Amino acid sequence: MSFLKLTVSNEEFPMRWATLTFGKHAGKTFPEIILSDADWFFWALNKGVFEGRLANEAEELVQRARAIKIPKRRPKRWQVEYSYDDTGGSAGSGL
To answer: How far apart are CA 28 and CA 38, in angstroms?
Structure first.
């Protein structure tokens, strides 16, 4: 399992993501795959590659992504930060 920390109202909620056990992204979580190969993630989602828990997590991630509201003020000053844990896994990202 991999953990991604979500900060809301100064509280941290760890989210557990299953690790893919097959294919070229075996050993990675969906957030890691989206950051490194979003085209593959959406291709696999549209082809019905994910089943069971993976299908549920993929749909949850897509719903969360659709709800993201990017601020419009000073877009030239935006920075994205990616965090990785000591094993090289994704620990989260922020805008």
So the answer is: 13
CA distances from 69 to 6, 8, 40, 48, 78 (A): 16, 15, 24, 27, 14
Structure pTM? 0.56
What are 11-21's pLDDT values in tens digits? 454 567 888 88
CB of 38 closer than 8 Å to CB of 45: no
In the chain the beta strands, taken as DSSP E runs, fall at 2-8, 11-17, 81-84, 90-94
- pLDDT of 78 above 60: yes
Domain ranges within the chain, ordered by starting residue? 2-94
Q: Which tokens in the block code for residue 44?
A: 């696999």
Distances (CA, A) of 35 to 11, 60, 71: 24, 16, 20
| Spatial separation of the C-alpha atoms in residues 64 and 77, rounded to whole Å | 24
Element holding 40 (H helix, E strand):
helix 30-47
